[in-house]
Amino acid sequence: MENKINLMDLSVDEIEKLLVESGVEKYRALQIFQWVSRGKKDFDEMTNLSKALREKLKERFYIGKLETQHRLVSKIDGTVKYIFRLEDGNIIESVLMHYKHGYTACISSQVGCRMGCKFCASTGLGCERNLTSGEMLDQIITIQNIENVRIGNIVIMGIGEPMDNYDNVIKFLKLVNSKEGLNIGYRHISVSTCGLVPQILKLADEGMPITLSISLHAPNDEIRNMIMPVNRRYSIDKLIEACKIYIMKTKRRITFEYAMISGINDSSENASELAHRIKGMLCHVNLIPVNDVEGVDYRQSDKKRIEKFQEILEQHGIETTVRRELGSDIKAACGQLRRSIM
């Protein structure tokens, strides 16, 4: 693969430019892009290209390939968890979930994560590197090929902090949205962040009507500093201010993710404080019963406490849902399986 270019990372325009440099007709770029988007990993399968052109492509390009190391299917709800091995030997996780409205893939954006959130299974293993746009795209394509389904929705909430890999994530969004490729609408894509304020403000100007999810998990700096080191850099006030600017510029509703951790952030006082902080914003709160992680002391709030928390938020006019736990029997939560393997 040395000095060869991974076609998975390239847009139609980029392929076109490289082909023209090599003396190849530029209309071939679209054909190549479409083959790659359909999941073809072998140039010889690109049957509308001449043999001479296919040989020429092999000299300059390669098509990245994920190796499926594990595939686990939940007996409870059919959720599928994958461990994919990258070409450098690193491993990442992806999840396929089936809802009434179709299939949603949850993908990773980094190998590991450097945000250090205390309750997260991805914490403690460090961050090896960013994923390229093509490695993110390949998670979608590989899952579609394995399961023979069409993925209609994407959440970038797997391993990694997407806004810490900003340029590659933006390029992935453009690739996956491309009408010549997978053609998945921006409105069907959610990107999660733990609160990197400059990147949130930058994203507001990209003109992509995606859904932004903020991993908030606390109503004040004291609790957030304790469980999320990023808050020491960008306080909760700065984060909420950035969210308000994002909403104003994009007219898109933000989702606040809130992991319910017993005895840490789940009291009625916490709920009231959170309600006052975000009241009046175009937002929705998603309460998440925190996953038990080996070696981490935090435990899930009990059902009554979660119901009370939801009730208080709703009394303040804040739309609130409780996330349904999927694939609990296969460690489907982000980072759990990779952590146990490593």
Structural class: alpha/beta
Which range best describes the helical content: under 10%, 10-25%, 25-40%, 40-55%, 55-70% or over 70%? 25-40%
What global shape is seen? elongated
> Which strand order spans the largest sheet, edge to edge or round the barrel?
3-4-5-6-9-10-11-12-13-14
Low-confidence stretches: none
Strand-residue proportion: 15-25%
Strands, count? 14
* Continuous helix count: 11
Global Rg: 21 Å
Rounded mean pLDDT score: 92
Note the main sheet: 10 strands, mixed
Q: Alpha-carbon distance between the termini?
A: 27 Å
In N-to-C order, the SSE pattern is EHHHEEEEEEEHEHEHEHHEHEHEH
Fold topology:
Layout lengths: L4 E2 L5 H10 L6 H10 L13 H10 E2 L4 E7 L6 E6 L5 E9 L2 E5 L3 E3 L14 E4 L2 H15 L3 E6 L9 H12 L11 E5 L3 H8 L6 E5 L5 H7 L8 H15 L3 E7 L7 H11 L4 E7 L13 H13 L4 E3 L13 H6 L1
Parallel strand pairs: 1-2, 6-9, 9-10, 10-11, 11-12, 12-13, 13-14
Antiparallel strand pairs: 3-4, 4-5, 5-6, 7-8
Helix pairs in contact: 1-2, 4-5, 6-8, 9-10
